[in-house]
Structure formats: structure tokens, C-alpha cells
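Weekly modeling sync, notes
Attendees: S.R. (lead), two postdocs, one rotation student

Agenda item 3: backlog of single-chain predictions. S.R. asked that every request posted to the team notebook include the full sequence so nobody has to chase files. The rotation student volunteered to paste the first one in as an example of the format we agreed on. Action items at the bottom.

Example entry:
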Amino acid sequence: MRLSGAEILIHCLKEQGVDTVFGYPGGCVLDIYDAIYRDGTLRHILTAHEQGAAHAADGYARATGKTGVCIATSGPGATNLVTGIATAYMDSVPLVAITGNVTVANLGRDSFQEVDIAGITMPVTKHNYIVKDIGKLASTIREAFYIASSGRKGPVLIDIPKNIQTEQCEFTPVLPQRYVPKAVAADSLKEVADALAKSKRPLLISGGGCIGSNASENLFALAKKMQAPVCSTLMGLGAYPASDEQFLGLIGMHGTDASAKAFRRADTVIACGMRFSDRVAGNRTAFSEGKTIIQFDIDAAEIDKNVTTNLPVMADVNEIFKTLLPLLDQADRKDWLKEVSAYKEYESANFDSSLPAYNILHSLRSFTDKDTRVATDVGQHQMWTAQYYPFERPRTLISSGGLGTMGFGMGAAIGACVGSGKKTVLVTGDGSFHMNLNELCTAVTHNLPLVILLMDNNCLGMVRQWQTLFYGKRYSQTTLDRKTNYCKLAEAFGAKGMTIANKEDILPVLKKAFEADGPVLVDCKIGIDDKVLPMIAPGKSFEDIITKLN
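Predicted structure, as returned to the notebook:
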């Protein structure tokens, strides 16, 4: 059949299993939007801003495991996607960004709203395309989806000039090419299996790769067979159930004291789909001293990039687990598990439960289930959520890790809510929320069941915390002298607004918020000097963990 480029795009999206896209129309994508209108079956979520569309597509992908799709016009529309694309790139999220551009004849002439978006996004995409031949459009779209969802997942951009959208050519539907990771040969893991058998105090660290490769079930089986404790990077939370006795919680800059102590004592560290970022490894030299470091990662570029490993294995994490499990005998490391259990008990016994954020997030458990998606922005509230909320299943934490994108939360929560089809929670801060609060109108328009917990301390909390600890309490531009009434703001957008002013408010307000229909914003009053602890200062080792302040 003979179709226009815009029609080919819609057919290819549906061919790839896409049922929802996020975007914002403009001059150079009008033909695409006309094709969406005429098709009538593709769900389009109109966001308030292109950045919100990119974050929503990202949140949708994280929550569902599918490839997220966003659309923007040329020029500023396309550049507004860049932060969202970079966020997805840093966290290995499958995303296809579709941009319009001026006609091929007008490229490179400084035409109205022309920008080299392919050049701009080259460092933050797995691949990108400028389609200059209508005959190559369908194959390009199909290839883009395959690249985005294969290996180490990530974003791909397709720039489609306006004339390519209107030109016609023959189109033949094809079945989508699905990525199947390569099996891992047993011989390649013999040395790893031998090292694990000899280890007296192994420690597993789960990273985002465990979620991306759907390895949670086999990670659990491996931990039980090895009788090894498990801790997690921020991106790995949910890969291993928080309620399990072998789980020690978050590791790294704001990780638990128990995970830090276990790491110091471990003789073997098995890094599963994690990249040893500075926030996890800290002092990279000290990190590996006296330990055997085993790294499982699908990306060759991550092997020995940050921390030198003794036994690297480059492959899909789940495929590694599948092959490794039969090579291991059931271990008996009761003493080691007893030791790390004592670390957890000590930390629990010495925990300060008066922190408002803790009480709110602890109470949140009563209104959610194991499949509830919890999105966050970036800042203190993000770390509190990682520390205090028990993530039991993969794809339930939706958060910007590598790029640390303030303003990520609203769009991401919308995407996660649309993708999951159920009540979703956003934990944000007053600094982050102000960056993209315009997306509240998107949540209201679609009557999304979204509960927003806004940690309101009238400051940029994490930056202020660093100023307190490392800059002599010189609070330069971190106090927010804003007079925003968040309840009235929510109501002005068409949402419901509520306030938690003290501990007694928490349960009744949360109950009311979760019983309400549509979006609800809860203004949670917290202290300006509340801190995220434990903390390891940048570049320091696990020996230098700060558990309390004098």
C-alpha cells in the first residue's frame, strides 16, 4: 500500500506495539499529528511542555518495561526534549524521541525553527537519525526501536524533515524484530563459580541492569543459594525484595550503615548490572582494596571504567544468572548472615524515628501495595524515599539516578501512572516541583490517580545540607523565599490540595488523599534543617560514613 511518511510512522509505531505517545504539536510535526488524528487508535498524551513529554515517556518505559515514545516539533520543541533524553541515557531507559524538522531542501540554511537536533543529542543517545529518503523511513523506525530496547537499553532519536512526512512510498508491514539476549556459556563462568565457592563473606550489589534484564527472580535465587546479603544501588531498588532478611538496603553516599559495614567486611563483591558510579564507589581506589571484585555487565565500556575488577563478565545479567546458578552448590554461610543481621539490628535500634519525612514515608506503606509505582524528583526527598520506603518489586521506583534531574518527577509520575493504569505516588520537594509544576494540568486533564507528596522545607534541601556540612553554613541561594500556597495552587489547576502540618495529620490526610479521585497534592511541612543520613562525603570511603551529626 502507498502511504505518506506521517502515515508510515503511525503504522510502524503500532507495528512495534506502541499504544501511547507523549508529545506537543508544532509546525514541523503537523502532518504527524494529522495522521494521529486520522488513525484515531493511538493514545496521545498532550503535556504542558516538551520536557514533560520526554520525562513522561521515560516514566512510562521504567514502569512498564516497554519503549517510551515522545514527539516534538523542530527548533525549541526538539531542544526541550534534550534533558529528558539525557536522563534516559544515563539510566539506560529505552526511549524513541521523534522530532520534526524543516524540509530537506532547507536544512543548513538557518531556516525558521531549524536546529541540528541530531548533532545536539549525539552524546546522549545510543543512536540517532535524520531521515532524508522516504524509502528508508520504515526501516529506520524499526531499527530505532530495536536499538533502544536491545543490549544496554537507551534513547534513540529520529529526526523527520517536513517533506518526508508528506511524501509517499510503498509500505509493507512486517513483524517487529525482538531482541533476544545471547546465552552465556558455562565455561566462561567457571572461574567466577570457583571464586564464589571459596568466598567466606560475599556481598551482592544489584544495579539497574537487574531490572532492565528482568533478572529479579534469578537474583533472588542466587542470593539464597549463595547465602549472601544483598544491597542495592538507587537504580536497582526493587530488584530484590526489601522485606527479605538478606536485604541490607541502599549502598553508597546515602546508603545504610548496615550495607557500609557489610561492604567493609566482605571478601568478594559481585556487582550485578551496576556501573560503580562515584555516588556508589566513593573513593574508587579504596573500594576494591582487599576484595575480589566480580562485575556482571552487558556494556563492555563499563568494565574497568571506574573500578578495576578481578573477574569481569560481559553479558546480559539475567543470562549470567541462569548459567551461574547450576554451577554453584548450596552454600552454608549462616555466620556471615548472622553478622550482617546484627548490623541491621544495630542500625534499627539507633535510628532516629522523629524525622517528619520518615514518618510520612513509613505511613505511606499502609496505603500502597507491592506494585504501586513511586516516582521521585531529585534531592533529599529522593534519598529519604530510597531509604525509608520498602520497594518489593522491580519497576516500582521511578527516579532519575545518573543525571539527577530536578523537575523529572511530575512528567515521570504521569508516564508511570498512564503505563500502570493504577494509583501512583510522586514524592517531590518544593525546589523540584517548581521546575515542572505546569504538568499538574496534564494530570488533571486526564484525571490521573496521582498522589503528590511535596516535602516542603522552603529550601533546596540537599544543597543546603552540603552547605551545612562542607561550606561552613554559608547558605548561598538555597533558601526559597517563596510564598506559594500549594493547596490553592493545586485547586487552581483543578486538583485537590491538602496539608500535613504535624505528625497527627499524617494518617488522616493520607487516607483522604488516597480515597480521592484524580490528582491530589499534599503539602508536607518538614524542617529546613532535616538531614539525609547516613552520608559518605564525596570521594570518601565506606570507612568514613557519617551516621549522626554532633
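Discussion: group reviewed the output briefly. The first helix runs from residue 5 to 15.
Action items: rotation student to repeat for the remaining queue; S.R. to check formatting next week.
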